[in-house]
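The instructor's notes for this session suggest beginning with a concrete chain rather than abstract definitions. Hand out the sequence below and ask the class to guess, before any prediction is shown, which regions might be ordered.
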Amino acid sequence: MVDAARARKLADRIQQIVAEMLERRIKDPRLGFVTITDAKLTNDLRDATVFYTVYGTDEEKAGTAAALESAKGVIRSEVGRKTGIRHTPSLVFELDGVMENAHHIEELLAKAKEQDAEVAAKAVGARHAGDANPYKVEDEDEDEESEEDDEDES
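After discussion, reveal the predicted structure:
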C-alpha cells in the first residue's frame, strides 16, 4: 500500500505525460480530437486507468480507441522514463462518459423547465380552495369583550 497523496500526484503526472504524448509524439491518423480527463492508480501503483473523451461519431471513437490501444506500449515506456518509478504501471484507456452524462442532464433539465412552464400556465387565474387565510383566528371583538369582563370582575 502506498500513501494516497503520492498515488494522486503520480496519477496527475501520468495524465500530463499521456496528454503530452498524444499531442506531440503519437501521429496515428485514427486518433481523433482526444482530451485526457483523468487518471487513476490502484493502491499498489501497478495499474493505471486513463480516462479520455473524444469528439466525433461512434466510428471516430472506435478508431481513437484502437489508436490508443496500439500506442499503449510507447506511452507506457514514456511514462516509466519520465516518472522514474521502479515499476511502470500498466495502462488501460477507458472512454469517459462525462459528455454523455452532461448531455443527459441537459435533456432532463430542459424537460423539467418545460413541465414547470406548463404548471405555471395552468396556475394563471387559479384561486386557492377555501378561505384566503386557512388558519383559525379568533375574532378581535370577542377578545376585547373578554378583556373588559376580566376588568369588571376585578
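Then share the key points. The CA atoms of residues 46 and 89 lie 4 Å apart. DSSP finds five helices and three strands in the chain.
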